[in-house]
Amino acid sequence: MPITHLLYLHGFRSSPMSTKARLVQQRIAQHHPRVALWCPQLPPSPRQAMAEVMQGIAAWPRAQMAVMGSSLGGYYATWIAEQTGCRAVLLNPAVHAARDLATQVGTHPSWHEPQETFEFKASYVDELRQLVVPAITRPERYFTLIAQGDEVLDWREMSAHYPGTPGRLIEGSDHAISEFPAHLDEVLAFLDLAR
After folding, report:
1. Which domains does the chain have, with CATH numbers?
2. pTM for the complete prediction?
């Protein structure tokens, strides 16, 4: 059954204006007009972010929805895929988000709107712990795009957390997956989007 609803979740400090999010938006608009794509601006609170997302997708058909997430968005996407049973594409997904973001408590500029700032509170680290998925079920539902050259996250941790999943391990590259356009066809083919 082709996918008719796609959720895209951006990473920490990122936004729906990220390069990868915009590429996905353009491709969906051009080639998959029947697909409803939602790329929300996520609030800094993980609990609030997931509450808003789950409310937003409440009426979506579970068998015809999928989620794509980058970095922290990949951590969230894993939780959503396990809650809903949907397919998921993970782009350099954060695996130990609470550990990694514990060092980021404080005020940060937004990546795409540097004049805008947000506060990442210590309580948010605990909220991230509440969303941990110790082990995924049904690896065939997941597609992972993992860069060995990721300067932020350890590709070995990512690979170990998603054993047996279809996907691609990219030699070199970076956390942003600068070559994402070259992999987009393969990613979208896995999702089997409605045309």
Report:
1. 5-95+135-191 (3.40.50.1820)
2. 0.97
